## 1
Amino acid sequence: MKRKFFVTVTALLAASVMLTAQNPTLETIFSRKSVRTYTDQPVSVDDLMMLVRAGMAAPTGMNRQPWEFFIVQDKALMASLSEKIPYARMLKEAQAAIVVIGNPEKSVYWYLDCSAAAQNILLAAESMGLGAVWTAGYPYEDRMETIAKAVGIPKPYLPLCLIPIGYPKGEQKPKDKWVESKVHLNTW
Amino acid sequence: MKRKFFVTVTALLAASVMLTAQNPTLETIFSRKSVRTYTDQPVSVDDLMMLVRAGMAAPTGMNRQPWEFFIVQDKALMASLSEKIPYARMLKEAQAAIVVIGNPEKSVYWYLDCSAAAQNILLAAESMGLGAVWTAGYPYEDRMETIAKAVGIPKPYLPLCLIPIGYPKGEQKPKDKWVESKVHLNTW
């Protein structure tokens, strides 16, 4: 029984290694990591627009697309935000930031659609050699207010997250989050 | 002025076409669509496990990983769910389904982390030639209860969404959701 399990797991691992080797999207998904240190290399507006374009390709409930995207390039503004928002120190070093913003009047679950958009942006960044990290706005009232005020987001829009962008400094490895006991195949 | 704008837009478009041509991850992001009709071709357990593995590679707030994944292969169960859940008719045809499940005791914003995981699954499916679509559980109490009861999800876990999986039947095109006025470059 133990041996059979071992063989199955080995076969699955071998299959997964083969599949990712031939599938650059899976490779990006598995190599994406939260990057919090960046070099001085600027990030072009074309690249920032491409990241937003990737965000806007996410699915949305009822196709309501309840989102807006704010690109910040002002370094003084990013430095000031880095002091005010918890866990956002890395903003001071970033070359730019993208704020993923929802419109609660267009959809009551805008934050789910915007999360899918944010994940697209993180994956697009990884695939383009850029580093990025999800910094929470929603659901924290104070952080949302700080971001909205500093950046100039009008009502009723709400910032889901703020994503600093830059070229990664140093080598950062993705976390291995695979936990087999969290997969339930046909039965809990 | 108009000419300059036109040249800029054309240059951006050209850049985006070039970039996606060289970047298979962006290609997947832009070609992903909601697939609601499937062929009779079975989907292997290896492929289903790979989709879940992709889901588990998403980022989570404070690295809490407040998720579980349920793979459904029982066709009778999927047919029964297709009758009970709104907008889930396509489940009857699907070869399998993945339920993305959150643990609200591990994180109060489990649904954001689980949304990122769901998006990873949708992109992984697209990249593997599979079709999938996000079917809402959360935030609808009744749908969450229906899914949890039918599949056998214990408390306190909550289903974010149910993702039918199969090989796409017919040609389905991605929606073009690009709206330039939703991008705010340095100013709203």
## 2
Amino acid sequence: MRIAILIFDQLTALDAVGPYEVLSRLPGADLRFVAKEPGAKRTDTGALALSADLGLADLPDPEIVLVPGGEGNRPLLGDDEVLDWLRSAHETSAWTTSVCTGSLVLGAAGLLEGKRATSHWVYREALRAYGAEPVDARVVEDGKVVTAAGVSSGIDMALTLAARVAGDDVAKAIQLGIEYDPDPPFDAGAPHKATPELVELIRSLENAP
Amino acid sequence: MRIAILIFDQLTALDAVGPYEVLSRLPGADLRFVAKEPGAKRTDTGALALSADLGLADLPDPEIVLVPGGEGNRPLLGDDEVLDWLRSAHETSAWTTSVCTGSLVLGAAGLLEGKRATSHWVYREALRAYGAEPVDARVVEDGKVVTAAGVSSGIDMALTLAARVAGDDVAKAIQLGIEYDPDPPFDAGAPHKATPELVELIRSLENAP
């Protein structure tokens, strides 16, 4: 199964690497990182680079396409080459997916028109500009379009996708292999679980629309 | 705060990138990926490379040192240059940490002697060879040595560490920023939650000691 994860400079690494760690373990997975220009893409902190082995033209017809978030994807919202590639990939994909603000890119490509979708909680309402109906959920499926909430939610999205693609037992085996039995020391990972001060802090740091 | 994540070819990407995504958000964090030879390190699937900007000699005294897992770390178990660097870093570190089979490397460096520690569930018992007491827990703290269970547990470990280093509110803010409100579609992420068949499957795939 051909899987394309689109990356770019200033991406949020975990948005891409969480799903990669799950989807690359699917039986028969042929997962590639693709970019407008192949090569190393620096993450939003500057401390890490992820490699894109292929350009867009090298993988025009992935069966799963995934767009991660990070402020580096904002230039893509007006990039016809990237949006055309996404639209074309979506025509034949089995699943078109995003993590975090990756859904803004799907929206800019016109793929969320009339669809239920999600994003990082700070950016969720911004999906309305693309004709989407924002949903407060960690993973939102609408037909073959599957969007995930912020950063770490890509792991949950990818396990959901793994079950759809290969069955529950395969998804459970992958979950056991990556020992995904989450147990965070705090219960503060969603805005309704955090203090108003922390919610405001993250909003201000995120520089949201 | 100087943070070093040691990487190598054939690492498991999420072991490193989960904690990176948390620890790089600590106020004043100066997080670097280091390797025996700086440059791109291919992950265990071959589909991705992560960049190491620094060599070991470039960062001899990190305040946090983290060793991830992946079968590519087995050669490090007998690599004096790496083990000496770890021992030396540990002398002055505030925290010496690992994710997944990264604890085997800490063990080989002699840093787990008489300590409680954990690893990926498949490899946990192998820690006894290094004088450690294996503990069935997602995050194990013993003094300044903090070890995490398999792959995804590095996120929980890093949030625990963030709280120790910068206080609960900072850790909660980071958790909210990465929207870590986990909700996997299955409850199969630990061996006692999975079927015996899946446990046996993962054991055989992992090629455990």
